[in-house]
Amino acid sequence: MGKGAGGPRALSRLGMIYDVAVIGGGAVGSAIARELSRYELNIALLEAAPDVGMGTSKASTAIWHTGFDAKPGSLEARLMRRSYALMEQFAPEAGIPIERTGGLLIAWSEEQLATLPALLDKAKQNGVADVYLIAADEVYRLEPRLGPGALGGMLVPGEHVLCTYTVPLACATQAVVNGITLKLNHSVKAIQSRDGFHVLGGPGGSVECRWIINAAGLYSDEIDRLLGHHDFIVTPRRGELIVFDKFARSLINHILLPVPTAKTKGVLISPTVYGNVLLGPTAEDLPDKTATSTSASGLQTLLEKGRAILPELLNEEVTATYAGLRAATEHSDYQIRLHAGQRYVCVGGIRSTGVSASLGIAEYVAGLLQEAGLTLKPKLQFKSIRMPNIGEAATRPYQSAEMIAANPTYGQIVCHCERVTLGEILAATRTVIPARTVDGLRRRTRVLQGRCQGFNCHGAVVSLLARETNQNPSQLMMLEQDHVA
Ligand SMILES: Cc1cc2nc3c(=O)[nH]c(=O)nc-3n(C[C@H](O)[C@H](O)[C@H](O)COP(=O)(O)OP(=O)(O)OC[C@H]3O[C@@H](n4cnc5c(N)ncnc54)[C@H](O)[C@@H]3O)c2cc1C
Description:
- The chain is 31% helix and 22% strand.
- It is α+β, with helices and mostly antiparallel strands.
- Strands 1, 2, 3, 10, 11, 12, 13, 20 and 21 form a nine-stranded mixed beta sheet that branches.
- It starts with 10 loop residues before the first strand and ends with a helix.
- The chain binds flavin-adenine dinucleotide (FAD).
- The site of flavin-adenine dinucleotide (FAD) has 41 residues, from helix 1, strand 19 and helix 8.
């Protein structure tokens, strides 16, 4: 038998010794926990926040990347490609909202136009064969409302949008359903290694494990240092975005992509699976890992770029703005390293493609563990899950006569902007990983996410959540102040 797998469960003076502890419940850590939950292993997923998916993963642009523009031969390129195929299967099976829009990369200068053949070649090297160079008239035929000056483009039919909230929630849910232990509000602050196992300490208590997976996102370098490594430094790269109201949705047919640079994929205009339009993100390196507020200058830059790409977009109303921090490092590739002797895998520096690549990363990490001697014995059954649909491409509960007939609370709308029903709110508080915060409820249902931003239903939503989760409404509001990005 390999090290620690499938054997009798050892107990120490603290209790269970887990075979594997995953630090960080973002898209990446949750996907790793899900992947490992296929096997006869005792796994803990440790997340500092009160919910999964509250870090960078909730603030992405939500593009389901093909990996066409990744650096050929890089780990990122390889894992994005693999992940794309895995997501193709997992998303429909688990009910992760996706919308198959396709992407249209547009050249706005002679210099950019000249780089398109090389980009096409790069896509092909990355195994993305379904890409086509198109002339300016075809660009305008596909996207008639584009601003003047497009000189040509590249069509990437496989580039789509997904729900960035549901990806980590679905992965963590399936992991829990398949037996892992999820510890929320569990921040790892210290690591001691002795007698063949690690002790992960923090204010939430201690956890003992044989293997550590570091998927701590922006803090992955700090966890790496706790284990004695100095392989990379995370510099938060802020991306600000503007969300336009649903009336803007008819302005575009595809994700409108810029020609990427070495530093960033650039400012794009994209549909969302909720029926809005996103403009962003910016790319600005900052010293602060908590700087998730937007800035006047960042938003101004976006508006100027947006006006040039799609002038009519600026006539539309803005629903919200937000910012996320990419875990950029001094290296261009993911920082995934196996330290077999230490029984440690670092999964850091997953900067701008981690939601798309999460399933591929998870499979790769499982392979590294196996390579290092951990026995991966498949369970007799890997249970499937189905997440509630919050996307516009499939039927939502308020549209389903069948659901309403079976449960009339699916006919009672609480959030009118996003048409979220009482039934969905109740279900979100009673599910495998229940919503305990208003933001958690938003990410599970879309409540408060619409054009009024909760002006009409905030009070009702807080009261409902407080009643269903046995919390005091004022405590809930304070939690919200602490954790909304
Ligand atoms: C503006 C922007 C746009 C993006 N657009 C896209 C896109 O279109 N498509 C795409 O695929 N990707 C996109 N990305 C990138 C993607 O969001 C990230 O690569 C991905 O979310 C990284 O996931 P993660 O799990 O590594 O990090 P996170 O989601 O940050 O998760 C890390 C988790 O670790 C927890 N944690 C940290 N320290 C500790 C500790 N000590 N103890 C316990 N828990 C801890 C955190 O609370 C957090 O929940 C974008 C990112 C940004 C910022």
